[in-house]
Design a protein that fits this description.
343 residues; alpha+beta; 3-stranded antiparallel sheet; globular
Amino acid sequence: MPHSSSPAAGNVPAPVRNDSGPDAEAADPVTVNGFELIKELGHGANGTVYLARQTALDRRVALKVLSQEKAADPEFVKIFLAEARAAARLHCPRIVQAISAGQTADGRPWFAMELVEGGNVEDLLAANGKLPVHEAFRIAAAAAEGLEYAWENAHFIHGDIKPANLLIRRADGAIKIADLGLAGPTSRRRGPAMGTPMYAAPEVILPDMGERDFRSDMYSLGVTLYEMLTGAAPFSGTPAVIMEYHLHEIPKPIIRLMPELSPELADFIDRLLAKHPEDRPGSWSEVRQVLTAAAEATAAPPDHRETKPPPRRPRRPLLLAGGAVAIVLAVAAVVAVIRRCFF
């Protein structure tokens, strides 16, 4: 975004950075609807995310501003704002909290949300190739918990579950789902396919494959879990090739790549990746319970070495020692009697 030294109210130029030394005159901060932009955090096809400060409450937030291209679609803007406001009513520790939404003076929607300081699952995969089995199931179970809450409380589906949208808070490792403000009720999920091709459910790509609902997010979570466990998504190639695979190709069964998984757990992951929604699990509750149990079953056993009581000393040696002392004393007494009698 081009910077303007005197931005019009509501325009979103890039934040000014003063790199001329401590004595240089500080540039005026860029403010968007009560949010002072600090720096850019990320940039994608839909827009830009900034680190910002909500001036009224003096707190740091993440502020997403849609791109000019998206902002040029009035229907997209209308749905975006309606659903962002609806998402603000969801309160779940597994979901990035929406704070506010609005529109800049030049017609670009923005969306303010809780700032989660840390990284995301995509970062972990890039650094490590794949995740420990327990960690993969822990993350997937946490995501299922948040998606269950969104579905049960507002019939919200996310539409773009992927590693980059699963945030990991640095302070405690908590998992939070990002970009739920771009999701919405199933009644709105019509029209062009949304989401990222690598993780998109078949019915998201081709409506003839079934109705888009919460089970579409299950498929995307299944792809994400598959990648976390094996280090690679089920399909690769260009976006068009990957979408074709999602529609017609069966992923390599995960049991072949991870024979240490139980057959029941491997079959469950295969169910998440079923082509038709009706062949996937019937509720988020089921998914959450299975993934939580898997995380618990694969956790490393706790180390009890420091908490074990000291071993009890065997009693038999003590008895033997006591007998030896008695014998010594008896011998001494006999010697004393002999001395008195003969000397």
